[in-house]
Amino acid sequence: MATNPSMAARLDAANETTGEAPRPLYRELPPASAFPVDALGPVLGKAAKAIEAVVQCPLACAANSVLAVASLAAQGRANVILPIGQGKPSPLSLFLLTVLDSGERKSSADSMALKPVRDTEREIAELEAGQRHAYDVKVASYEASAKHLTAKLKSDRAALEAALRELGPAPQPPLLSVLAPSGDQTVEGLFRIYQFGRPSLAMLCDDAATFLGGHSLKAEQKVGTTANLCRAWDGSKLERIRGGDGVIVLYDRRLASHLMVQSGVAADFLSDAQFADQGLLARFLVSSPAGRAGTRFRDDAAYQVVTRRAALDLEDYNVAVASLLRQPVRWKNESDRTLGVELDALHFTPEARALYVEFANAIEAELTPRGTLANAKAFASKLPENAARIAGILTLMAEPDAQTDGAADLADAIELVKHYLEEASRIMATGAIDPELRRAETLREWLLSLPGDVIGLRDVYRLGPNSIRQADRARSAMTILCEHGWARERKGRCDRRHCASNGMGDRPVLNFDPHRWIAEREGQTVATVATVATVATVATVATVATVATVAAPSAKNEKANSPEPLATVATVATLPDASEVQRTLDSWCDAFNALSPLRPATGFTMGRWQTLYDCAAWWLENFARRAAWEGWSTGDVFGIRPGYPARGGLIDQLGDNRSLVMADGGARWRSWGIMSSYAAGCSPHLEPFWKGQ
Fold first, then answer.
1. Both 229 and 196 in a single domain?
2. In this structure, is the dihedral angle defined by the CA atoms of residues 151, 591, 589 and 198, taken in order, positive or negative?
3. Fewer CB in 10 Å around end: N or C, the chain?
4. Looking at residue 139, what is its pLDDT?
5. 430 pLDDT band (50/70/90 cuts)?
6. Same domain, 317 and 439
7. Alpha-carbon Rg of the chain, whole angstroms?
């Protein structure tokens, strides 16, 4: 952000009039130590260096990207056996967090690291396409046989049961090709993939703000999502309880995660008390390297040489990841995939076991109230297990058929987790992740770019940075700036025109006028809505809306600044009959319950069908009752326009988006920063998607 020279000079000279220089809002982060890339081993270490050289991103960013992909590849192959009790299996799943600002080429680094994953997904998709027709034939044959046996033996129950047992279970569909979902990701979506896809997945987000600020982590979903993520890291069973689906339990599912976020988003995430209390933060290995933007100059001839060398260095990495991902899934019961998979066991050698115990004891000694790790107790207590997981990953990347975990790999893993511990301690010790201080610093930088001396609260939350465009946040941020000497409160009521054109000359400190927003509010329109609702079996609602409008001052009384008389309009809404609403709800639910996520209607690809199916399930659970009361038709909600994807009804337009707000017969949602809207009655003529296209 550009800084206004005169404003900057006045702020820098604050001590000349106040006697005290403005104080920093928080301590700057001390520089991060160098990432121990050689501890990643010959395969991952060379890959990380190659990505850093080509993309010119921080080395820690490239290292976390390859480590996350390696975790995805290894976690579906084996567990590492911790020396606890008779041996405790631990997944090879890692949760990584990289904190980097925009422009640091996080996406490019992730894209290079993901190449063997995307290539494998394409191979699986081609195989799935060939198996899909065979599966449809088997299902049709199975259903016909079962129907024939039922009709033939309906009078002999014992014979029918014997015949159906002999017929066997229904055919299983081919696995979905998804290994690392892209785009908007939700825990609900991951659960759906686990049901019908492979048991090992990765949540790799190069812009994790879409996840951390998405539907899964809204207030009403946050506790459940956090608990599911913790269970996924632990390797525990995953459960989902729904009215329509009943109870679904999945065993042996694995999830690797790498979230890349800007510093502001990371501050909110790392300072969230609920994430900390539920133990999610303690499971993440965090890196916050220095950015390289502004230093990435290159000589093109030399860069071409670097690129060719990097391609060779990435070959071993690509082959190792692909070989692990291509291994067949060993289901415990092919007919019931919810029961999980068979995974190999990686046991420590005696030397590795002794090293693990020594490291665990050293960590434990520092967890006392006076220990060096007392403030990072939750994070530090999981370091030995994270080290064991990383050691198992390094072992399998070098030798896919390994059965033991050696001391050399564990020693490298311990060096890596020590670096992550240093990073976590560095961030926590500064206190720089307080979101209120972060917002105040953002506001301070914005104020430095302004030409004037006086700013009103209303202008702060109306024109200021997006993160403080709320009155309470703006007021809090300005209070912090005042407390730290970056602004001072201007006493007394301020005339609006005077505030706008006030030339404060060489006054050194920005003036904050707490009354200006009151002055500017005069002459604006004020709307008051009173709603009374009575809810019965479905709902019986009576709504009375009273709107009071304050007219703008007329020319004759503008000097006196006296408003015109109030105009009050009372309206009574007309709502449908309760029985009609219930019929609408029943018709929607009956139609949806007849669908299968694996049996697309005519004209749909599997991908688009499942997008519509998942969105419809989510919408019915959260918004159907309100929509029925507000008069939404089947076409408005579920309609499609054949040949024009995402141009039909509400569900078709939403797709994977879960930021929907519905009120007063309208719907609004935000996608990529753009607000979209849709209203009841727009498309009643459209046919619902389940009728095909």
1. yes
2. positive
3. N
4. 87
5. low
6. no
7. 30
Which residue range(s) make up the domain with 109? Answer: 41-122+179-345
Q: Where are the beta strands (DSSP E) in 212-253?
A: 238-242, 246-250
Q: How far is CA 488 from CA 471, 482, 512, 598, in A?
A: 18, 5, 6, 63
Residue found by looking up tokens 């025109």 in the block: 497
CA dist 201 and 214 (Å) reads 19
At 426, the amino acid letter reads: R
Residue 390 lies in a domain: no
Distances (CA, A) of 643 to 48, 153, 189, 604, 616: 44, 46, 26, 10, 20
How many domains does one find in the chain? 4
324 and 197, same structural domain? yes
Non-local (6+) Cβ contacts of 259 within 8 A are 96, 97, 98, 203, 205, 208, 211, 212, 284
Task: Count CB-CB contacts under 10 A for residue 681.
Answer: 12
- Looking at the structure, tell me whether residues 674 and 554 fall in a common domain: no
Please write the tens of the pLDDT for every residue from 389-402.
999 999 999 999 99
**Residue 455 in contact with residue 502, Cβ under 8 Å?**
no
Are 583 and 560 found together in one domain? no
Judge whether 401 lies within some domain.
Answer: no
Task: Report the alpha-carbon distance of residue 378 to residue 368 in Å, rounded.
Answer: 12
Specify if 368 maps to a domain: no
DSSP E strand boundaries for 359-407 = 404-405
Of 299, 319, 345, the residue at which a domain comes to its end is 345
What is the 8-class DSSP label of residue 134?
H
Q: CA-to-CA distance for 94 and 286, rounded, in angstroms? A: 11
Residues 6+ apart with CB under 8 A from 114: 65, 69, 180, 204
Alpha helices in 39-105 (DSSP H): 41-55, 59-75
387 vs 36, 258, 324, 344, 353, CA distance in Å? 14, 17, 21, 19, 12
Question: Is 360 domain-assigned?
Answer: no
Q: Are strands 674-679 and 666-671 parallel, antiparallel or unpaired?
A: antiparallel
- Tens of pLDDT, residue by residue over 91-125, are 999 999 999 888 888 989 999 999 999 999 999 88
Same domain, 476 and 613: no
Give tens-digit pLDDT for 321-347.
999 999 999 999 888 888 999 999 999
**CB-based contacts of 344: which residues, under 8 Å, 6+ apart?**
77, 78, 79, 403
Question: Domain ends where: 553, 575, 597?
Answer: 575
pTM score of the predicted model: 0.64
The residues, any chain, with a CB within 8 Å of residue 1's CB and separated by 6 or more, are 445, 446, 448, 449
Structure tokens at 448: 């430095």
Q: Are residues 48 and 66 in the same domain?
A: yes
The pLDDT confidence band at residue 27, using thresholds 50, 70 and 90, is low
Same domain? For 556 and 596 the reply is: no
Out of 131-145, 243-257, 401-415, 430-444, pick the least confident.
430-444
| Per-residue pLDDT at 501 | 28
* 22: pLDDT strictly greater than 70: yes
Nearest 10 degrees: CA dihedral of 618, 622, 260, 325? -20
Q: What is the pLDDT of residues 593-649, one digit of tens each?
A: 888 877 888 888 887 888 898 899 889 988 898 898 888 999 999 999 888 888 899
Six-digit token string for 347 = 């046991």
